[in-house]
C-alpha cells in the first residue's frame, strides 16, 4: 500500500523535512535501489583493480585509448533524459487515472437508502450493496495479485458471505464468464430495482385506477449510480489488458541499463600518476553514483507505478477498499429507526441489527496475511491534548479577520492612519502626503 508520511511533514522546515523524508525505509528509494547501487559499485571497483594491478603498461595504454574514444560518444548515443522523462510522465498519468477509477460505495448506498426506504425493503438494499461489492471483487480479482490470493475461487467468496451457494451455481453457469463475470451481480442488483418499481406501479394503480403511472424515478437514479460504479471497475480491467506498449518499456529499461554499464568503463580514472587523495576520489565516483541513484531510481519508481495492482509498497490496497465498501454500504442502507430484526432478517438468515461485517482474510498459521493494510488518515492515530472550548467574541480575529496596521500606499502616495475616535473633529481615515489629492470621510 502507499506509504503515508504527511503527518510527519506538518511544518515546513528544511532540515526536519529532509531528515524525516529520508528516514523512511519501506517504500523509500533506498529500499528500491540500494542493492543495485552496491552491485554497480562493486563491479566498478573490480574493473579499476584489474586495470591498475593486472594489466601491463601496453595493455593499459590500449584500454585507456579505447575508453577515451568511448567517453566522447557516450552521452550522445544514449538520449537518456528524453526517453526516461517521457516514460515517467506516461506512467504517472496512467497511475493517476487508475486511482480515479477505484470505486467507493457511498454514492450508490446513499441513493439506495434514499429512494428505497422502509424496513420492509432493508433486505433489498443490503443485497444491492452486497452485489456491488461482489461485482467489484470479481472484476479486480483478475488484475490484482493480493485480491487473487485472498479470493482464489468462488468458494472463498461463499465463506466470506459475499456469495450464496445458489448464486455461485448461477454465476458458474454464465457462458461468457471466461471474458467477464463482474456484470452478473450488476444484473442481479438491477432486477431488485425492477421488482421494486413494479411493486410501486401495482400499488399506484390499485389506489388510482384511472391515472397512468409515470414512474417513481428510482430506477433511473439508482441505475445511473450502479452503472457508474461498475464502469470504473471495467476501466481498471481495461488498463491491465491494454498496458503501455511493451516495446517502449523495454527500450527505456534497456537504455538505462546500457548507459550505466558503459559508465563502468568511461567513468574510470585512467591516470596512473595521481596522488593518494586523487586515487581515493577516483575509487569512489560520487557524481556518477548520484546520477545512478537519480536515473535508475526514477526508472524503478516508474516500474512500480506501471502496475498499481501489484504487491509493492506503493501499490493500491484493493482489499481494504472492498472491506470499507461492504461495511460502510451496509451501515448506510441499514440505518433505520425501527428494529427490523424480529420480522425482517437478511436473506442469509443473519440478524440485521447485530450483523458482524468484519472482513474475512486467509490465515497462515497463527497470523493473517500482513501485506494487506488499511488506509487511515495521517492524523488518525496522532494524540492531541483536549482543551476547553468557548464561543468567540464578535471582534475576534477568527471572525473579523486581522486588522490592518498603519502603512503607506505606494501606488497612490497616500498614508493610512488609524480612525479618529474624537467627537470634536471629523474622522479622517486617509491623509494625503504632500502634492497628493486629499480624501476626507465625513461623519454621518
Automatic annotation (TrEMBL):
Forms chloride channels. The keyword Isomerase does not apply. InterPro entries: Bestrophin, Bestrophin-like. Belongs to the anion channel-forming bestrophin (TC 1.A.46) family. Calcium-sensitive chloride channel subfamily. It is a multi-pass membrane protein. This is Bestrophin homolog. GO terms for cellular component: chloride channel complex; plasma membrane. The gene is best-11. It holds the Pfam family Bestrophin. It comes from the Eukaryota. Its main location: membrane. One of its GO terms (molecular function) is chloride channel activity. It is found in: Cell membrane; Membrane. The chain crosses the membrane at residues 12-33, 39-55, 76-92, 104-122, 246-267, 279-299. GO terms for biological process: chloride transmembrane transport.
